[in-house]
Automatic annotation (TrEMBL):
GO CC entries: cytoplasm
Domain ATP-grasp: 42-118
Gene3D superfamilies with a match to the protein in the record: ATP-grasp fold, B domain
Name this protein carries in UniProt: D-alanine--D-alanine ligase A
Length: 118
């Protein structure tokens, strides 16, 4: 799972969680760059689990003193959430995960960037 977070006027975003489903045992180079995975946004998981992931992302964002937009990656085992890493310079191409989450939230990329840059 992955979740983008950004802050505008002191308020953290509530972007939908994205589920990455790899055809391989691991999310490796082939899965990531050669199309051996599919990205589902919003993730097809219970709302309560999605809300917990977003809350965890917000907590980490604040604790680390992040600014701008970041993306956090997780592994989910049952109901347990395991934080893997933070990407402080997430991709912003049309195919990248954060822009997909922005679009799924109902925002345009233009609106997102205008809000982010103030």
């Amino acid at each position: 799972m992955t979740n983008g977070v950004f802050e505008v006027n002191g308020k953290l975003s509530k972007l939908p969680v994205t589920e990455i489903i790899s055809k391989n045992e691991f999310f490796d180079y082939e899965a990531k760059y050669l199309g051996a995975c599919r990205e589902v946004c919003p993730a097809e998981i219970p709302d309560a689990l999605s809300e917990r992931i977003v809350a965890q992302s917000h907590k980490i964002y604040r604790h680390l003193g992040c600014r701008g937009v970041v993306r956090m990656d997780y592994i989910i085992r049952g109901e347990e959430i395991f934080f893997l890493e933070i990407n402080t310079v997430p991709g912003m191409t049309e195919m990248s995960l954060v822009p997909q989450e922005i679009k799924a939230s109902g925002m345009t990329i233009r609106n997102f960037l205008s809000n982010l840059l103030g």
